[in-house]
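Sequence decides. Our protein:
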Amino acid sequence: MSWIDSIQKAIDYIEIHLLDGDLSVEQIAKASNFSAFHFQRTFSILTDITVGEYIRRRRLTLAAQELVNSNDKIIDIAYKYGYETPESFAKAFRKQHKLSPKEARKKMGPLQSYNRLMIKIKLEGVIPMNYRIVEKDAFRIVGIKRTYNYKNGDNIREIPHFWDDVHADGTNDRLIELNNGEIDGVLGVCCDEKQNGLMDYWIASASITGAPDGIDSYEVPASKWVIFEVNGPMPHAMQDTWKKIYSEWFPSNPYKPAGTAELEVYTNENPSNPNYYSEIWIPIR
């Protein structure tokens, strides 16, 4: 099964089981031969929303269609689309459509439709992506970590605040001083999933010396890495490159992500500089 086929199969599974109240990321990922963590991460990079948010939007889109085109009771439609009370349904409905269910039924305003996702191959890649593939033994990083729930998108919302905190309290400068290992620069390290939908995210640096007080350490496993050059100011250059990697590079290359720790490497320069250089490291198989 190709990379594109796997993603499309997962989306098709969502649509088939959209009315299943207990539809989970684990079930969807299993249908596409991804881990739950990697599928959620890939989906978020490509669409800028979580799997859970996509499901919620699709359910409320279909619920709106039923309100307009049927005489079914609002409470029955609420239950059908996974809401335990009319109040919770009305709150979610208004958040998406800017109308109440009663107003939608009376056709008192436009509705917001989120259509079914379809993966299509486009002619992309005119702008080249500079990358290299290297193999490295395991190496150690030192830094600080926080744990996030990737299923509800905590990682997407909260990791930027983590970076703000690290710059504000001087930890970033401390990590620069500790950087004497395999890689030059401060690292953002997205680790593989833990139990119950949790993941660790590290802000760290590669170091061959011991971790001082207040700093933890982690061993990045031996891997074959694909390393992408990122050129441009933060955060947009990094975000754009991640999207190109998953929408262009992986679909047109024989590799797959290995599912272990992925790195963002930030050099000690002005991140607002239009020529700022950084890197993305992804373990592959």
Remarks:
- The chain has two domains: 3-105, 131-284.
